[in-house]
Amino acid sequence: MEKIGLVGFPNVGKTTFFNVLTKAHRETAPYPFTTRGKNIGRAYLDDPFLEEIGEKLNAEEIRKPMVEVVDIAGIIEGASKGEGLGNEFLSYIRECEVLIFVLRAFENPDIPTPMEEVNPLKEYEILVSELYLSDLQKIEKLEKKFLKDKTREGREKYNSVVAIREKIEKGEEVSDREMGLLSSKARIIVLNTDGSENSLKWISKFKDKTYPCPLKLYEEMEDMEERREMEDYLKKEGNYSPQDILWEAFESLGYIIFYTVKNRIVSAFPLKIGTTAYDAAEKVHSDIKKGFIKVEVANLNDFLKFPSWVLLREKGFLRTEGKDYIVKDREILEFKFSS
Ligand SMILES: Nc1nc2c(ncn2[C@@H]2O[C@H](COP(=O)(O)OP(=O)(O)OP(=O)(O)O)[C@@H](O)[C@H]2O)c(=O)[nH]1
Ligand SMILES: [Mg+2]
């Protein structure tokens, strides 16, 4: 399953964010390193189109698209060398495909921070440099290994690793995701704000896009009746909701959604852009892939207008595609397979 990692300093609100996304109620506390290791949970993406399909079909069950969220223990300066909770965090980050950096922009003297003062920009720079340092350690190990390999392949590998190291040392962007470098993972920057002018001033200090979100407020709003109105208000003020941020992370991963409809159950599945119908089948069930014959495809708009396979066929809105068909965003798929 697609994994999204929450990274940041201790006490910045990572677990608060995790709880809002997964409704898992893990411990949050006003002291650093509350989370040891990691929390893993499932977060569902709210998808209005899925709801609409469900309504049209009077569905009995709606299965939302889901991603895995990993709440990783706090990282501090020197973590790559073992400071704080040390570099256990590396393996957790490595397994995530996108990283959400949670940075503290709220002021509250009762909640200590390892920083001298609230400074999300500095937090961000330290976190990124810890990722770079860990990558460098990994690269240096590989360099030593490939240096010993005197074959042509070994030399080539050595040269490419050296090239990556030089890029990292110059502070250049490394796009080699293949190597699983932490600093090359997709990033989303969340500013945990408190709505005050002081906290919002940080947005303009970043050269990358940031997503301001008062996380604690979202946690508190969860069971409130006026939640919708409050969310609308916060959005108008320029904030992003935890769901907005989840969608951003999802899209930055290069994912789309496809739907299936079976026995009044409407389901949505995340899928990497460019995936064939054959591989998409597996997301629904491995048996469907095994016995794949063909797939019938409808566009979302056509389906919402004519929410029945019979009608769609009659109107000529149904396409039959084979194994190699590349699935597009928001299509409704009906797999035909032999069992
Ligand atoms: N005032 C204020 N407090 C917040 C906000 N977000 C989180 N907190 C509080 O800050 C404390 C730390 O929050 P956590 O979610 O536990 O932080 P964490 O990043 O998971 O911390 P560690 O697990 O220790 O790394 C808790 O007491 C939260 O209630 C916020 O936006 N404003
Ligand atoms: Mg925590």
Number of E strands: 12
CATH class of the largest domain: Alpha Beta
Mean pLDDT metric = 89
Task: Report the span from N to C terminus.
Answer: 25 Å
The rough form would be described as: flat
Q: Unreliable runs, pLDDT <50, ≥5 residues? A: none
Briefly note the CATH topology name of the largest domain. Answer: Rossmann fold
What's the CATH H-level homologous superfamily of the largest domain? Answer: P-loop containing nucleotide triphosphate hydrolases
Helix and strand element order: EHEHEEHEHHEHEHHHEEHHEHHEE
* Cofactors, ions, other ligands: guanosine-5'-triphosphate, magnesium ion
Largest beta sheet: strand ordering: 2-4-1-5-6-7
Q: Beta fraction of the residues? A: 15-25%
Domain count, please report it: 2
Which architecture of the largest domain does the CATH hierarchy give at level 2?
3-Layer(aba) Sandwich
Secondary-structure content class: alpha/beta
Helix content: 25-40%
Largest sheet: 6 strands, mixed
- Give the count of helical stretches: 13
Please describe the topology of this protein:
Blueprint: E1 3-7, H1 14-22, E2 38-44, H2 48-57, E3 61-63, E4 66-72, H3 89-94, E5 98-104, H4 120-148, H5 152-169, E6 186-192, H6 197-200, E7 210-213, H7 215-221, H8 227-236, H9 242-252, E8 255-262, E9 265-272, H10 277-284, H11 286-290, E10 292-298, H12 300-305, H13 309-314, E11 319-321, E12 331-337
Parallel strand pairs: 1-4, 1-5, 3-9, 5-6, 6-7, 8-12
Antiparallel strand pairs: 2-4, 8-9, 10-11, 10-12
